[in-house]
Amino acid sequence: LPGAPEVIGPLGEVLPAAAAFVDIISAPPSAARQTLEIRALALLGRRLLTLDLGAVAVRIEGGSRILAACCPQLERLCAQLRQQHDQPFDSVDPNDIARGCPRLQDLDLAPVDWNDTVLAQFAAESPRLQSLSLRHVTPDASEALLSPLLAPREHRILVLHLALHARSDPERALAWLDGVSQLVGLRSLCLDYAAPLRLQAIVSVLHRGVMATPVVVAAGGSVGDGR
How far apart are alpha carbons 60 and 66 in whole angstroms? Predict the structure, then answer.
């Protein structure tokens, strides 16, 4: 939607009790420079349960901290935030969302550099979490990255999107798959950067654990022929 900030502000005033809002931006590339102002987000966000900003990067003044403060009842968040390097307060931290949105169940937030510390803290502060996207994992993340998701939780992880980065560290990727296989009740699994692992190897590791028959979607590289 071209001019998204101008649309969102009046909408928040007309529908202050909106429980869900999806903003799908399908405008020319210039729309990537859209900024969601604090006033518009505050008007609309107080009662939001779902916020999906689509695939185009949107700048929110104040970053994830302001987003969490304006949308305290969020249960589902899908957003790719744009940061301005000259304004560090636009930083994106999933733990801001965890602390500010205690009812959070589904998170797909970018850009986030996931590692052991970030994921452990986020999992501890998001007891209701059921769906998580780890689209980028840092090189220093260990083989035990997914351990916090395997610990006893109020709710099980049902949907997981994981960047394996198998080309740079295949042994670590296999260790993560072994962790995934222990997620009881997992219903949907999406793997990014799975090449050069073969599909047979992936399925073999997943079947070692207690995981029931999952839906496996391979993205970001072919896994069938190892390319």
Answer: 8
Token representation of residue 55: 């695939």
Q: Tokens in use for 12?
A: 């928040």
pTM for the predicted model, two decimal places: 0.78
pLDDT in tens, 212-222: 454 555 455 54
C-alpha closest to that of 218 among 181, 190, 177, 188? 190
Sign of CA dihedral 157, 163, 169, 174: positive
- Which residues, in sequence order, are CB contacts of 112 under 8 Å at separation 6+? 92, 93, 94, 118, 135, 136
Residues in the chain: 227
Beta-strand ranges (E) seen in the chain are 20-22, 35-36, 50-52, 59-60, 76-80, 106-110, 131-134, 159-163, 188-192, 215-219
